Amino acid sequence: MTDSAPARAGSSDGAAGTETPDKSGQQQQADQAVAERLARAGERVRGVLDEVARCFVGPREVPERIVTCLLARGHVLLEGVPGVAKTTLIRAFANAIGASFKRIQFTPDLLPSDITGTYVLSPREGGFSLRKGPVFAHVVLGDEINRAPAKTQSALLEAMQESQVTIDGESHQLEQPFFVLATQNPIEQEGTYPLPEAQVDRFLMRIVVGYPSIADELKIIRTYSTAAPEARPVLSPEEVLWLQSRTAEVFVDDEIYAYAVALATYTRTHPRVALGASPRGSLGLVLAARANALVRGRHYVIPDDMKRLAASVLAHRLVLTPEADAEGITREAIVEEALERVPYRRSESRGEPTHGQAVSGRG
Ligand SMILES: Nc1ncnc2c1ncn2[C@@H]1O[C@H](COP(=O)(O)OP(=O)(O)OP(=O)(O)O)[C@@H](O)[C@H]1O
Ligand SMILES: [Mg+2]
Predict the structure, then answer these.
(1) Tens digit of pLDDT for each residue in 151-194?
(2) DSSP state, residue 72
(3) Cα(47) to centroid of ligand 2, in Å?
(4) Distance 279 CA to ligand 1 centre (A)
(5) Torsion sign, CA atoms 54, 58, 61, 64
(6) pLDDT for the residue numbered 16
């Protein structure tokens, strides 16, 4: 699945596949070392995807996005109707990276301390001892996060943001890596507390698990009506930390940065968008593209990485106007429109990208 693309694609001189001639031999060697290291890193990650694929039958794109988020140190909003193997997938993923895994079922009566933990009287130790909550795990699946009131949701969201929790005024560091996936029940809205926009913005990606194809569904029911396979560890949490640090070595051209900003700006100035993508969104897109390049064994980001990930990273952050809702325009369609109209290089631009009348009326 390694993309064949020119080295340093998108460099402004357009010299595809060749190193710039004025580079010193030492610099070239260093570049070569980075490229080889990142290629090895990519291989390790793809080993995880192969292991997960034994347990989760479906498009590889779904676990690929999840591992991309993990490497980018982001968190995931996971969506899908009941029974499409969200839990199965995350459990397999946690096993494959040798990580501890906890699932939290959010309910209306769940308290913040049910997530973080509490001090309990321990007569044997003659005092209070900490009973750690389920947030003390590498991989935390928060199921139906919209069923709990805001205060309880915040306990998890703060942990995501700060990688630590405060229990009775004392701070406690969480496990590293720390990776949260939250599901929202999309069907029953009654008596739920949908995440406010400010909270949704904190998730790097929204990933949708859809229904399987007919062939995949047949494979699922054949496999799972006997013994369900279990994923074996092919990485360790320490290796995940090493992989996360490698993403900083992935090369990003200035044109790529400019492209991220242009895409975010397009959403912000769109007449059907009330709240566009924040700088956290454009930053997230670059972080995700870096991590995804690594997953694909490449040491540089190409525009296709940005295009592949833009909807997952940006769409959930948008708030559309009531007109857009009435016209049936989706957030994904706005991002698609941005990808169609914003040129990758300004030099290729024939004037400023303009917004269509409405998404449905483009062309
Ligand atoms: N794509 C799939 N690959 C492998 N197993 C699947 C797949 N889809 C469904 N299954 C099987 O269906 C069952 C339900 O899966 P699981 O509990 O993971 O779903 P879920 O999305 O977490 O559901 P819920 O929203 O109710 O929590 C499991 O036995 C799982 O193995
Ligand atoms: Mg589940």
Answers:
(1) 999 999 999 999 999 998 899 999 999 999 999 876 666 667 88
(2) T
(3) 24
(4) 35
(5) negative
(6) 42
Question: Residues with Cβ within 6 A of ligand 1?
Answer: 56-58, 80, 82-88, 212, 220, 224, 228
Could you give the CA distance from residue 310 to residue 321 in angstroms, rounded to a whole number? 21
Domain of residue 137: give its range: 35-227+236-246
Give me the number of domains the chain comprises: 2
- What's the pTM value of the predicted model, to 2 decimals? 0.89
**Nearest ligand for residue 219 CA:** 1
pLDDT of residue 193: 82
Per the domain annotation, does 333 fall within a domain? yes
Q: Is the same domain home to 195 and 93?
A: yes
Q: Which of 76, 88, 147 to mutate to test the pocket of ligand 1 (most atoms within 8 A of CB)?
A: 88
pLDDT at 13 over 50: no
Of residues 132, 100, 141, 93, the one with CA closest to residue 114: 132
User: In angstroms, rounded to a whole number, what is the distance separating the alpha carbons of residues 148 and 161?
Assistant: 19
